[in-house]
Amino acid sequence: MGLSGQPIYIMREGTERTRGKDAMSNNIAAAKVIAESVRTSLGPRGMDKMLVDQFGDVVITNDGATILKEIDVQHPAAKMMVEVAKTQDSEVGDGTTTSVIFAGELLKRAEKLLQQKIHPTVITEGFRKASAKAIEILEGMSIKSGIDDREGLKNAAMTCMSSKIVSESKDMLADVSIGAITAIAEKSENGNWVADIDKVQIQKKEGESIDETSLIKGIILDKEVVSPGMPKIAKDAKILLLQSAMEIEKTEFDAKLQITSPEQIQQFLDEEERMLRTMVEKIVNSGANVVVCQKGIDDMAQHFLSKAGILAIRRVKKSDLEKLSKATGGTIFTNINDITQDNLGFAGLVEERKIMNDSWIFIEECKEPKSVVILIRGGTELIIDEVDRAIHDALCVTRDVVEDQKIVGGGGAPEIEAAIQLRKYAQTLGGREQLAVEVFADALDIIPKTLAENAGLDQIDVLMKLRAAHQGGKKFAAHDLETGDIVENMMAIGVVEPTVVKIQAIKSATEAASMILRIDDVIAGVKGAGGPPGMPSGGMGGMPPGAMGGMGGMGGMGGLPPGMM
Ligand SMILES: Nc1ncnc2c1ncn2[C@@H]1O[C@H](COP(=O)(O)OP(=O)(O)OP(=O)(O)O)[C@@H](O)[C@H]1O
Ligand SMILES: [Mg+2]
């Protein structure tokens, strides 16, 4: 109470606050809901989700990151779980479902420890140690792979696509993805391989079937050959990349030309023609048979180029010209007088092709394509988008193996192995931390358990059998969900994953779970003071506009007439 008897407000009126146990159990409950929502989609036998956004657009997918990106989550702890998936996706590109399920399970089991009055910081410290140890175990059990291990690359790419809707085409999509990554991978100065996914462009075009999806070692331009008289195909193309226009430049100021006789008009036109002819002659002399121009090409110049059998494209984007320069090794010229033969770009093939109703220029078989294009085909947009997501995962996984050079067997084998070894490690710790590490180990089992459950198998039965196999020294024993058999070595049947995917899943899940466990006070500010963006978009849908005036969250706007909303 102040002197005047007025209460003192520390926080803005309407602020919601939950503390202590309530805050924690709310957060854990929200996080578990998120984990639960993707659980059934894990693994090759997982189910797909159909998501409909507020505009009615439909997405059908099995991809954890996509599912969580599409659902509009409000609860702050639930949002943190969505972040787990996003981190996993941006760091390694696969294993998003795994990481979220694991984070949910960690929290579920931590809750039991909290009920036994174990302090959250003891739990998070135990989780930190367990996570570090688990990573060590995963590193230790890994097999060496890398860019030269084509079999390893192919198996990893196929495994990550076997859980996608388009898995029937995984063989061919894996080849396309591996072809793309190996084409753009570069050895850095310290001898490590680096593959930058941004150098792989994705173009989508409805029509044909998924199997028509192809890798273009070069670039596709959404352009046509400029004149019908020109060739539509050029083999062993020597490409002139031109930034300036092939036109007679207009003066910058208004000039008046006094023409007094018909001959003078002719002279004027002849001079223009002569200048354009000289331009084209210079190009012909350089040996170029393809011209890619950022600006316009005059009709007369087009005519001369056609006569010389040169294929020309005009008004190409600057960024495309730069990409072409990289891919073909050609210099971008601003002045035709500077052209030299050595600085032309090279491509094995330049061709205009009709894809559905559009004509595109394909510039392929470049010497050192520092950028490549994957042209995705498919019957409908929904399928094409899912192929895109599958290829994204395959590209990431291939990059992971190329860069990190380590793989493990899949199907939950690494998780079972790590859990077994962690339990042994826990015994060396003693005390309450031991409990936390054991809980962490138990949480790892959720992956093989969920994989089995989604395939309609008995979780406990499968887990017992697999543990026995692992204790007998079979570190990659797991259940092959395609055949339903227990396999002693998943690697032998080609179910393979990059080690970094497994490690990152553990890292991001542990971080998120620990962060959620350390929160004992949730202070939620007044929503909506800034207008509609702060409103919970889901819940408001059915309300008549007038109802908004009474909402606490809209405090600042309560006085506005409904029409103003
Ligand atoms: N033939 C198979 N038998 C058993 N397990 C398999 C098989 N193929 C893949 N898996 C396993 O399925 C799991 C991956 O499933 P899924 O791709 O649905 O989830 P994710 O990779 O965690 O998430 P997302 O791909 O959505 O980012 C991995 O544990 C992988 O080893
Ligand atoms: Mg996956």
Strand content: 15-25%
Small molecules bound: adenosine-5'-triphosphate, magnesium ion
Going by helix content, strand content and strand pairing, the class is: alpha+beta
Spans of 5+ residues with little confidence (pLDDT < 50)?
529-565
Q: Which descriptor suits the 3D outline?
A: elongated
Separation of the first and last Cα atoms: 38 Å
**If you average the pLDDT, what whole number results?**
86
What is the radius of gyration computed over CA atoms, rounded to a whole number of angstroms?
31 Å
The count of helical stretches stands at 16
Walk me through this protein's architecture.
The protein is of the alpha+beta class and 565 residues long. It is 44% helix and 17% strand. The chain has helices at 20-39, 64-70, 76-91, 96-115, 120-141, 150-161, 170-184, 262-286, 299-307, 318-328, 381-404, 413-427, 431-444, 446-454, 459-471, 499-517; strands spanning 16-19, 49-52, 58-61, 143-144, 186-187, 193-194, 200-206, 214-216, 219-221, 233-242, 290-293, 311-313, 332-333, 345-355, 358-366, 372-378, 406-409, 478-480, 485-487, 496-498, 521-524. α1 packs across α3, α5 packs across α12 and α6 crosses α7. The longest helix is centred in the middle third of the chain and has 25 residues, at 262-286. The structure holds adenosine-5'-triphosphate and magnesium ion. The site of magnesium ion has 4 residues, from loops. Adenosine-5'-triphosphate binds next to α2, α4, α14 and β18.
